Amino acid sequence: MLRQNEIIIDLGAIRHNYRLMRTQVPQGVRVMAVVKANAYGHGMVEVVKTLAADGCNDFAVAIPEEGVTLREQGITANILVLGAATELAAETAVREQLTQTVFEPSMVQLLDETAAALGKSALVHIKLDTGMGRIGLRTEGEADELASALANAKNVQVTGIYTHFADADHLE
Question: Are 127 and 158 in contact (CB under 8 A)?
Fold first, then answer.
């Protein structure tokens, strides 16, 4: 039996949803579109170009390779890599000006050294674990250690901090 499935991606609906989201946040607050996993199967490059044309300047991907794909397509917007900073990805992240997620001092040191070697700055967002149990700072002690590492890193620029809802399905 042959399946007659068809997927229709409505970029107009995606644009509409972005515009609606913009109305729900205060003026001056930026909305970051998460486009990891090929924009959840919707076509990452097409979705990013559509939203960028509508004023979205911030995008999130899972891995540096996705960010490289966007850079190769001429996307100059801010791109956050949601996955943890790794030795394999550090040079790519710094070279392509991808903002890397950090939550351990060793990640900061790695990016600092890589950025120094390339004569650039490494951009980072700090990840807090507020109950999801995946990655991120969990304790005050971990936060203090990361703050110290960041204070000593001459080639690392913190551009933000984020978390993930521990349970997005319940209001309490």
Answer: no
